[in-house]
Design brief:
CATH class of the largest domain: Alpha Beta
CATH topology of the largest domain: Alpha-Beta Plaits
Number of domains: 3
Number of helices: 19
CATH architecture of the largest domain: 2-Layer Sandwich
Strand content: 15-25%
Mean pLDDT: 76
Largest sheet: 10 strands, mixed
């Protein structure tokens, strides 16, 4: 029998991943029992069957083979998770009781699968600006050497001008235009002659059929596929014949495409808005709740955030604690900062609903809220490979500032830097109610709209020296409301949880 810490160390997954597995019913909920002597002063400890580690290893294997979580849940019969004993066994019989109750995973069913790393033909992944994010060795046949980071059209234009080359270029342009790009933006760094050539080809480009996979029969000997992933568009050049037919059939069944293109995504220097949210008073809430209820709460927060972040074209990444770190990369319409603020604002409303549910459930007055910091800047972003798969991450001052600001925020406030508001269009900024609260001469709280302040002026001097020395002079403001949306900030006392 393993406690949660031992299980995480043995499997290499994060606590958030474990919470998700529990919520899906593919891993049993922990049995909360009195602690062992070596567990210290913890009031209760959650224990898992030892077979849970084997189950997690099987889940990770299936994920690496490209299975979706919904498919994995169905595979393990999520409606019938590993059962636990209804009565609490004595300490010396815990392992036997839990082991006897564990269900064996059903046998693996072989499925057709494909990994982008296994494509033997030229293949490359491009981002929103059609810069090359990933490429295999065979892509040199089409793009030439070392295409990383450059516009893919620049490489395709280097090939001799032939009908086949023009057809491939028209296909790439059609896919780009379908995704909102313009020839001027795609060719902004190309010579005038090549710019004019792309203009000519774009006029004759035929929009590909909508769908996950677009297809071009380029000449008599090869096909080109454009496969849409969340991270970008994968182009694959495949000779005509059985190989092309097999690839097409596998790609059309999206859930059997194995291999995450993020695994080898090249680091990219990009404009990015970062939203960091921390659960206020998390240690005290942990102390107040049974272990399984705390895990349930954290998992509910993650599940509530995921559709909000995705809807606003963001990505969840690594976070050192039980909070959220969300990244919003620059979009073609330049709306990444606005997307970040909308997501933070909607998450505040989602937390308000979740807090009311827990108040009714527990009979307490504690307000559950996420203290939020938002910053914007240019950073290197990429992925790290871990036991749980590829995780989006970034390093630099933007993430550090957003994290520090979230630590300063209280009562579910959203604080954003001057950089964030500078990135907004005038019509977007007009929808914001933003500013800072100050004390007037009589000591009354007064809201001053449309101004910034600094942490050194807003926080107590000793707190600035201890916690926010590096951020003391950073201009920030509070996002109180966004017109036309739900989630207005209600000022509350920074109360203590039960």
């Amino acid at each position: 029998m393993l406690n949660s810490k031992e299980l995480l160390e043995k499997t290499g997954i994060s606590r958030a991943t474990l919470n998700n597995y529990i919520a899906l019913g593919i891993v049993p909920r922990p049995e909360v029992l009195p602690p062992e002597p070596q567990d210290g002063a913890a009031p209760r400890i959650g224990y898992f069957p030892e077979e849970t580690a084997q189950r997690i290893a099987e889940i990770q294997r299936l994920k690496h083979e490209g299975w979706s979580m919904s498919r994995i849940a169905a595979h393990f019969g999520a409606a019938l998770p590993l059962p636990l004993p209804e009565t609490r066994p004595a300490a010396d019989s815990r392992a036997t009781a839990l082991r006897d109750s564990a269900a064996l995973a059903p046998p693996r069913r072989d499925m057709p699968r494909l990994s982008i790393d296994e494509i033997a033909h030229p293949a490359y992944l491009v981002g929103a600006d059609f810069g090359v994010l990933w490429f295999n060795a065979a892509s040199a046949q089409v793009l030439g050497p070392t295409p990383g980071g450059e516009n893919v059209l620049k490489h395709l234009l280097r090939a001799p001008a032939t009908p086949s080359r023009d057809e491939i270029l028209r296909f790439h342009l059609a896919v780009a235009l379908q995704h909102g790009a313009t020839v001027d933006r795609l060719a902004h760094d190309l010579p005038a002659e090549q710019h004019a050539e792309l203009d000519r080809l774009a006029r004759d480009a035929t929009a590909p059929a909508a769908g996950f996979v677009s297809h071009l029969g380029s000449g008599a000997s090869a096909c080109v596929y454009a496969i849409r992933f969340r991270e970008g568009i994968l182009f694959a050049h495949v000779p005509r014949g059985p190989a092309a037919d097999e690839l097409a059939s596998l790609l059309e069944a999206r859930e059997v495409v194995v291999g995450d293109p993020r695994r080898r995504r090249l680091p990219v220097l990009s404009d990015v808005a970062v939203v960091v949210m921390d659960l206020q008073h998390a240690p005290r809430i942990w102390s107040a709740l049974p272990a399984e209820e705390y895990f349930e709460l954290i998992n509910q927060i993650w599940l509530a955030a995921d559709p909000i972040v995705r809807r606003h074209r963001g990505t969840q990444g690594k976070h050192p604690r039980d909070g959220l770190a969300c990244y919003f990369l620059r979009q073609r319409d330049g709306s990444h900062a606005w997307n970040a603020l909308l997501a933070a604002h909607e998450m505040r409303e989602a937390m308000r609903r979740l807090s009311k549910e827990w108040q009714l459930r527990k009979g307490w007055t504690t307000e559950l809220c996420m203290d939020t910091g938002v910053d914007e800047g240019q950073q290197w972003v990429g992925t790290l490979q871990s036991g749980a798969g590829a995780e989006f991450t970034m390093y630099g001052e933007t993430l550090a500032r957003a994290t520090g600001i979230s630590g300063f925020a209280r009562g579910g406030a959203i604080w954003a830097t001057k950089n964030v508001l500078a990135r907004l269009a005038p019509q977007e900024r007009q929808r914001l109610k933003w500013g800072v609260h100050r004390r007037d001469q009589q000591g009354h709280d007064v809201f001053v709209p449309a101004v910034f302040s600094t942490i050194e002026r807003l926080a107590a001097p000793d707190a600035v020296a201890d916690q926010w020395r590096d951020l003391a002079g950073l201009p920030i403001t509070e996002i109180v409301d966004i017109a036309g949306t739900e989630g207005r900030r209600e000022r509350t006392i920074d109360q203590q949880p039960i």
